[in-house]
């Protein structure tokens, strides 16, 4: 195979379209999986994909054809370009059409080799995991889970002469601790860039504590409960709030950010707490591409025509007030506003930096009576106008009384809006990097605080374990 840069240039040279964007991605991955305190599999993978976007300017508008394929030889590039051009000629005029991004100064090293990962990333992690297996076997408890690390190098070139590249490391750890009879279960998950910051002993100690809490079983009915949402559960809710934060949908009255009398809720106070929801491609530990990479146009959030557009730090909510929404260049031009591209990370804090909030343990100690969640799953949208979501609790719901965990309670189905929750939050804890449970396949780079909500709606009892 040729180098990704070579393949990108070959695709651009082969194009006969009015405009062309090429995105080459070089992906390597390594993983470990285990069950019942024993490694089961490990593996390494490598893949390469190429996306070609061909645009055609016509009197009735600009068309775009987008084709993505896995490729292994330079000979396949020409067929891919022709397929993209055929799709573009047959397409309807694109509603999000915009001139391709012109070159601008940046410091990317276009000529550098793609970055790679290997099993060496687990050099410190694997021995610590083995020690945990030994410890858990002696207590007749079981560890299940997986660790994976990926490295993707993106190379983006356009017919305007723009060339950009970015190396994205991405790792996650998910662990389930279970009692020997499998009756009790607890989950923990972490996002990491390189596994050097993963403390296996701390992760498994927390799981042991939750399994001990679950030795006492308490049945509770459905209802509204004071609830502490840990960072992982908060991340799953805030990601959905972010995925629906399209300025176009708001201005056309189709989402929770639409104002009742028309326009958007920008400038409206959404939360009494000094909450800040922001994204920043340079955020330490959560770094992501500082330019738009879009292999498809999606929901007013991303446009293939915006590929290569610079991505800056943006505050979506500041001091509890909605300050901005995601806006493509095309929609910004139509509405005479500023583009606000989608950013691939999300940070929620209770103020500047969020470093001064209480820890989860301190929030538990300050609870007279309430529930402590572990995580959420099977989250689905019920009503886009209010962003009402439904889903289930999983792997541990605990009753807290007088600052102490009393035992595990049954699981629930919940019905809540993340925007509504922000308006009812009474305490914001310390922001920390976290891994969303539900959306970890799609969005991992988050930092969230635990939140206290006085009346979280556990709508029905769930039989899910």
How would you characterize this protein structure?
- This protein is an alpha+beta fold and 465 residues long.
- It has 2 domains: 4-212, PmbA/TldD superfamily (PmbA/TldD fold); 213-238 and 353-462, no CATH class.
- Helices cover 20% and strands 38% of the residues.
- Strands 3-2-1-4-5-6 form a 6-stranded antiparallel β-sheet.
- Helix 1 (4-14) crosses helix 2 (75-90).
- The longest helix is centred in the first third of the chain and has 16 residues, at 75-90.
- The mean pLDDT is 96.
Secondary-structure topology with pairs:
Layout: H1 4-14, E1 19-35, E2 38-58, E3 61-70, H2 75-90, H3 125-138, E4 141-158, E5 163-179, E6 185-192, H4 200-213, E7 217-218, E8 223-229, H5 231-243, H6 247-251, E9 276-279, E10 314-318, E11 321-322, H7 329-335, E12 346-349, H8 360-365, E13 369-383, E14 388-401, E15 404-409, E16 411-416, H9 418-424, E17 427-428, E18 432-434, E19 446-448, E20 451-462
Parallel strand pairs: 7-15, 8-13, 12-19
Antiparallel strand pairs: 1-2, 1-4, 2-3, 4-5, 5-6, 8-20, 9-10, 9-12, 10-11, 13-14, 14-15, 14-16, 16-20, 17-20, 18-19
Helix pairs in contact: 1-2
Short description:
This protein is an alpha+beta fold.
Based on CA inertia axes, which overall geometry fits? globular
CATH topology description of the largest domain: PmbA/TldD fold
How are the strands of the biggest sheet laid out side by side? Answer: 3-2-1-4-5-6
Quickly name the level 1 CATH class of the largest domain. Alpha Beta
Number of helices: 9
Q: From the 3D coordinates, which CATH architecture of the largest domain would you assign?
A: 2-Layer Sandwich
Q: DSSP strand (E) fraction? A: 35-45%
Order of helices and strands: HEEEHHEEEHEEHHEEEHEHEEEEHEEEE
Number of domains: 2
Fourth-tier CATH superfamily name of the largest domain: PmbA/TldD superfamily
Oligomer: single chain
Total E-strand runs: 20
Task: Work out the helicity level.
Answer: 10-25%
